[in-house]
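Researcher: Good morning. I'm working through a list of sequences from a screen, and I'd like to move beyond sequence-only analysis. For each chain I'm collecting a predicted structure so we can compare shapes side by side. This is the next one on the list. No need for commentary yet; just the structure.
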Amino acid sequence: MNVIKKSNRVRNFHWISLVYLLLRLSVILIMVEQIRNRNYENVFLCVLTLLLFLVPSFVERRIHIDIPDTLETIILLFIFSAEILGEINSYYLIFPYWDTMLHTFNGFLAAAIGLSLIDILNKHERFAISLSPVFVALVSFCFSMTIGVVWEFFEFGMDQFFALDMQKDTYLTSFQTVLLNPEGLNVPVKVAIDSIEINGESWKSYIDIGLIDTMMDLFVNFIGATIFSLFGYFYIKHRGNSNFLKRFILRFYKEKQEAR
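Model: Good morning. Structure tokens for this chain:
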């Protein structure tokens, strides 16, 4: 039995090392190409990506918390998909639901991290607390939504102060407003947009500057957070019997060794 467990650990080690190697090599090759093109903004994104790749290893070595291989792999792929594929390769524009997919995963992963942090405290010998599964799941959900909101603040700040367009625009063919109610009542009227002209240039429709994108991001974050929190409730209630959820729950190394 010990031989089998050792073999599994070696196989998992090689797997996660291979993921690290392939992703880092890809980022370095892309960075070299961006340097040749003198696109220094993308060079910065590549450097940022390489630094973010170090975060899981830093957490494991410095804080002595084990990040399951499945969760670590998804985090690495998430970083690569957001920074390299999304920003540099323009997947946000090529694939309409790329950003939506990433925000959904973000809600799921952030909820997993939030639940893990509370569960670690719940089981740690220094803390004389025993929180109910409902409370842990609720904190997990709130933690994920808070991360989502803070990220939207960051996107808004970058757009306002650095003239970026992280909160993508949306074409609108109609909208509802009380401002244009001809009777001055607090009753919304629907305004259909047949044509619009801005600075002498005709546009095909009105442009919403980021509101719909922001609310959609928060909504799919809500979906991801809700899904994991529901699973997390049953995981805590039945004290970690789900092999699927164990792939996403952080643990102290001491606890991991005792589980073996």
